[in-house]
Amino acid sequence: MKINTKALILTGLFAAITSVCALISIPVPFSPVPITLQLAAVFLSATILGSKYGSLSQIVYLLIGTVGLPVFSNFSGGPGVILGPTGGFLISFPIIAFIVGLIIEKNKNASDIIMRFLIMPLLLLFGLLICYSLGTLWLSFVLKISLTKAIYIGVLPFIPLDVIKAIFVSIIGYQIRISLIKAKLIN
Predict the structure, then answer these.
(1) Which terminal residue of the chain, N or C, has fewer Cβ atoms less than 10 Å from its own Cβ?
(2) Closest alpha carbon to 48 in 34, 62, 58
(3) pLDDT tens digits, one per residue of 8-38
């Protein structure tokens, strides 16, 4: 994969943004899953950078955290975090970025109104479904609890805020993407 300097910088920038959004973390007393802004960063990376660089930024984020830098929630890092209860949510990030970015790229000829108010919100909600699916399966496996209990502690309490994040990114993310394309900073 050939990567140019602008793409390299933006990839690193979005890995850093995801790190910062993970550090803004609120523990939830009944769940090992904290409230963070990571999903907003994942959605932004997909929306702005597209499939290749959006997913690459999330892979870089995961690699940095896996080698031990404290970039995951609660200033944690290391392979234990990926193998722990929240690992499924984390592993979903590059997958979400790739799929969301790819669909945005495939719909580049859609009208601005359709993209902003129909495709983007539905697409980001689909990304949320991917995150919840992988996260719930892994949470259930690691904690040895039923899928129902995993949904209760790892999904249901987070839905309202995550939907707000998806709506927020669908409003601003696509506009940022269009502005960066016009400025020839991204393709």
Answers:
(1) N
(2) 58
(3) 999 999 999 999 999 999 999 999 999 999 9
